[in-house]
Design goal:
Largest sheet: 7 strands, mixed
Order of helices and strands: HHEHEHHEHEHEHHEE
Strand content: 15-25%
CATH superfamily: Vaccinia Virus protein VP39
Number of domains: 1
CATH topology: Rossmann fold
Radius of gyration: 15 Å
Bound molecules: S-adenosylmethionine
Strand order of the largest sheet: 3-2-1-4-5-7-6
Structural class: alpha/beta
Shape: globular
Helix content: 40-55%
Number of helices: 9
Amino acid sequence: MEILKQIDDLKFISAIKPEEGKLVYDFVIEQKPRFIIETGMGKSTLYWLAGINQSRLACHLTSVDLCEEDGDHNYDNRMHSTGDAIKSIFDEDFIKNFLWQPIKMDSIKFIKKIPDHLHLDVFMHDSKHTIEHLRQELHAIEIFKPEWFLCHDCIHDFAKINFSQEWFKKRWKHYKQARHLAIFKRK
Ligand SMILES: C[S@@+](CC[C@H](N)C(=O)[O-])C[C@H]1O[C@@H](n2cnc3c(N)ncnc32)[C@H](O)[C@@H]1O
């Protein structure tokens, strides 16, 4: 819990909030995923790693981020700030052995480059919050049939438009939620 408190207290622009971070952390402990991809790195990355650290899982986490200005937002260099936070929070042994891969790239370009045979358990969207970008990520990731889909910040704005569509409803059912972070499970 000490680690969660340290992450909660970090100041990152537009990052997930403590209740949402706790949902991510508990999810890792309960579901024991082996391969996670998240788009948009930052505090979410730290909560994923906290869950992996706590459960001593051999779990691959790939975090994709442009790490540059995104329209009106300046997210600093997310890769550096996330890397610095990792070094200050986790012990050396964990860092030496964890399976975290940060990728500096547009999320959709990255998903399209992943080999078809990858076994992906979890996909989390928290990158560019436009309906079109979310739609493209979701469609691109479908080839891997992840069992879980986590969606941050799009829930309220996009709920009516996206998540009520037949395409989405056929594949995903709502599982849990904290504030603006929802977890969906494959039907
Ligand atoms: C709202 S922040 C959330 C980051 C992280 N999940 C957190 O909890 O701190 C959104 C991130 O998405 C990144 N981003 C924006 N457009 C992107 C794109 N097309 N591909 C990948 N990342 C993108 C931004 O650089 C920013 O770091």
